[in-house]
Amino acid sequence: MLKSINHRGPDNSRKFVDQNLYLGSTRVKILDLDNRSNMPMEIDDFVIVYNGEIYNHKILKKKLEDLGEKFLTTSDTKVILRLFKKYEYDSFKLLEGMFSVCIYNKKNKKLILARDIFGIKPLYYTFYNNNFIFSSEVNSIKKNLDYNLKKNQLAIYSFLHKGSIIESQTQYKSLYSLKPGIYL
After folding, report:
1. What's the CATH number where 48 sits?
2. Residue 40, Cβ neighbours under 10 Å: how many?
3. The whole model's pTM is what?
4. Which member of 63, 102, 153, 160 has the greatest number of CB atoms within 10 A?
């Protein structure tokens, strides 16, 4: 899956493994060139992979610093993770920007997916052979299944009739898009 999205982040590619959980990320370095900002990023019991940009991350970082948090990089990713540690699900309401994010809690084995309120950054998921698979690109999921996904005729009709596919549907059956502003 990482190879199929390498075009989006040739500056770094890494994975995190915890028993039967695999998280991967490719990164293009834009806001922060420091290697400590590569993903998957871990802070204490939390791991994050994320796609996007948080426009108000400097303001949020300052508020966290005022509460005693320390930052060694200028990464917006680290701001998201520290916010989540402090405010959990309410942290997503504080983020202004475009994002699809996955946070894993190693302690309680919970995986949280979230998407920005406008749905600018996509987040797709499916269940396959008792596995939950997600990605910010359909092709990284599709290319790694050992069967062909069936076309979703209703979604295709919706696209041709209205010019868009109604969220959480996609052009394929059993492949879904997380709705904007929702966490799972």
Report:
1. 3.60.20.10
2. 19
3. 0.89
4. 102
Q: What is the mean pLDDT of residues 65-93?
A: 94
The whole-number pLDDT of residue 8 equals 63
Residue with tokens 């696209």: 159
* Residue 100 near residue 114, CB atoms below 8 Å: yes
Q: What is the pLDDT of residues 95-127, one digit of tens each?
A: 999 999 999 999 999 999 999 999 999 999 999
Task: Kindly state the DSSP code that residue 74 receives in the 8-state scheme.
Answer: -
DSSP E strand boundaries for the chain: 12-18, 21-27, 41-43, 46-54, 97-105, 110-115, 124-128, 131-135, 175-177
When divided into structural domains, the chain yields a total of 1
Does the pLDDT at position 164 exceed 80?
A: yes
What are 101's two structure tokens? 């994010």
CA–CA separation, 38 and 138 (whole Å): 23
